[in-house]
Amino acid sequence: RHTRPGASGRRGAWTQALERLGRLQSAHLQPGAVAHGAAVGSCGSSSRWARALDVVAQLPRFSLEANVIVSNIAASACRRGERWKYAAALVAGMLDRGLRPNVISHSTVISACSHGKHWAFTLAILTGMLIVALELDTVSCGAATDCCEKAAQWERAWATWEEMQSDHLQPNEVVCSAVISACMRCSLWDRASRTLAASR
């Protein structure tokens, strides 16, 4: 069986990180936030979303809690695994613990939702970013418009594009392509042309 280049190295990294945690626990030592964070990071970079969530779930046993960075890493692992509900739950958990999710937190969940065409939830997250005074970014808007395009929601894709224009945020290729595709699908040639002209 052929193995993708670098796959064994990535697999070794996350297993070694979990083994280190296990050795500390077996020796009746309390692993700190750094050790847990490293394990979550190794699992996340290897797309082992379930393992990453297991490590996060263990934190309260050691009187620890996932900070924003660790939660973002775990959410990113869930995004790679196309588990948008888990990614969203991690961000919601931050709010429950009094933490402030950042732009990366929201962008990660939006990207996770785009895999499943959950456009309504995606737009709700964008609205939530504005409510908590987080600036919209190109990555978040790009994932949102892409999600709307996949779900044949051209009005929402167009509205997101216009929101970027009003915020003086330059739409990237992902945003413009999604809006143009959504408009062309509905034979809205004028809007597609306007988007194309604005992207040049």
The SS-based structural class is: mainly alpha
Spans of 5+ residues with little confidence (pLDDT < 50)? 1-10
Mean pLDDT: 78
Helical content, roughly?
over 70%
- Described by the principal axes of the CA atoms, the overall outline is elongated
Helix segment tally: 11
Biggest sheet statistics: none
The counted number of beta strands is: 0
Number of domain units: 2
Distance between the termini: 46 Å
Rg from C-alpha positions? Answer: 20 Å
The helix-strand sequence is HHHHHHHHHHH
Classify the beta-strand content into a percent band: under 5%
List the helices and strands and how they pair.
Blueprint: H1 7-26, H2 33-45, H3 49-58, H4 68-80, H5 84-96, H6 103-115, H7 119-131, H8 138-150, H9 154-166, H10 173-185, H11 189-199
Keywords: Repeat
Protein name: Pentacotripeptide-repeat region of PRORP domain-containing protein
Organism: Alexandrium monilatum
What does this structure look like?
- The chain is mostly helical.
- The protein has two domains: 7-101; 104-199.
- It contains eleven helices and no strands.
- It has helices at residues 7-26, 33-45, 49-58, 68-80, 84-96, 103-115, 119-131, 138-150, 154-166, 173-185, 189-199.
- Helix 2 runs antiparallel to helix 3 and helix 5 (84-96) runs antiparallel to helix 6.
- Mean pLDDT is 78; it is low at 1-10.
- It comes from Alexandrium monilatum.
- This is Pentacotripeptide-repeat region of PRORP domain-containing protein.
- Keywords: Repeat.
- PPR repeats lie at residues 137-171.
